[in-house]
Every structure is written in structure tokens, then in C-alpha cells.
Amino acid sequence: MKALAIDCAVSRIAIASKSDESTVKIVYDIGIRQSEKLLPAVDFVMGELGLTPSQLDYTCLTLGPGSFTGLRLGLSTLKALTLACGTPVYGIPSLEAYAFPCSKEESVISVIEAKEDEYFYQFFSKGSALTEIEDKAVSDIAGLLSQEQRTLVTGPAAQVFADGVRQVSPLILLEDFYAGCDCTGSLFALAEQRMASGAQPLQDYDGPLYARKSEAELVLEAKNTKA
């Protein structure tokens, strides 16, 4: 199949294109400058495989939680391709995508840095989600982890999170693991699983999956409360 994937959940953004067994990928760790690079990167990875937008069977991306700016940027880019060429776009929850390489493990926690000492997290077992997506401080999440069963930590924040937990609760059995610098390969696999099962792609009105309100929304709420 021919496809395009964007991992835009964190500041390090990855863009990958595939044509059957061939894949081309670019990763940028440049913070807010990712908006300058995304469209040229899309053109480049597709061009390297000789693909045009009209040839794509589907597109996919990390839907959230994650960076408000990155998620909106990625989704607007792929929806533009949908409008132009009718290409279906599949949104994969970010924590599910990061946990996918660990789908054979009994106990997995997938994590993304949220704010300061807080993380978005979700528990998985053998590829199935056990909990909803939440965000809490390291000390609060540590209280949910087992001291008897090893838990594999995955996601872009795996090592930092695991180190934080060990400082709080040294007896918790953790192993940090993060395969590669992005999850575009997982996005392709999960999107094609959804397609095979008949799942519907994102609709025009579908937006990013946010697990918390943006800073702008919190400020507005605070102003309204004072008023």
C-alpha cells in the first residue's frame, strides 16, 4: 500500500511515506519551527518514492494526546490531502501508537510528557488498553505501579519518566523501552489494521484527542470565573 504518516504528538516530529515495502522518513527535533518544515518534508518523502498525493491509499497520524500545536498542524495537513484527493485519514491515539511495539508484553505503561512533572499515560496488556488516558504527576502514577510485577515503560518520555518513578519509589519494577525516535511504523500498521476491520477514517468534524485543556482555555476559564 502507499501511505503517509505523521507523528506529531511531541516536539520531535516525524514524517514517513511508504510504497509497499519501501519507506522514507524524516525526523525533526526543532520545536516550534516544525511548522516551517512539515510541508516540504511531506513533499520530500513522497518524492523520494515517486509518489503523488493522488496515489496514496491512506494517511495516518498520532491523534493525541500531545502537543496542541503539533497535533493541529499534523491533522490540518492530512485533512487538506483528504479535501484535495479524497484520501482517507486515520487518527491513532498517541499512547496506543507508542505502545504498539510492546504488544506482547503483560504490563506496559505508555507515557508522554505533559507539563513540568506531569505525564499523559495509559496502561496496556498484550496490546489491549486497560485504562483510559489520564495525566498525573510522577508521584501519583507511581502509586499505581506494581512492586511485584515488572512494568515496561514506553513512549518518548520513557527514560525520564522511569528515572522519576525510581526516585520516588525505588522498589517499583520498571524497565524503560523506546523503539526508535518515532512511531510512524506503528501508525502504518495500526491504520492498516483499522482499514482491514472496516473502521471508518476521520470525518471533517473530527479533531485532535486532547486529554487536558490548553493553557489558553485555562486562562479564559480563570478570567470568566473572576468575572
Topology:
Blueprint: E1 2-7, E2 12-19, E3 22-29, H1 34-48, E4 58-64, H2 68-85, E5 89-93, H3 94-99, E6 108-115, E7 118-125, E8 128-129, E9 134-137, H4 138-142, E10 151-154, H5 158-168, E11 174-176, H6 184-196, H7 215-226
Runs with pLDDT <50, length 5+? Answer: none
| Number of contiguous helices | 7
The CA-CA distance between the termini, in Å, is: 55 Å
The count of DSSP E runs of length 2 or more, i.e. the number of strands, is 11
Q: What does the largest sheet look like?
A: 6 strands, mixed
How large, in whole angstroms, is the Cα Rg? 18 Å
> Mean pLDDT score, rounded?
91
Order of helices and strands: EEEHEHEHEEEEHEHEHH
Query: So what's the overall shape?
Result: globular
Taken as a percent bin, the fraction of beta residues is 25-35%
Helix proportion range? 25-40%
Which structural category fits the helices and strands? alpha/beta
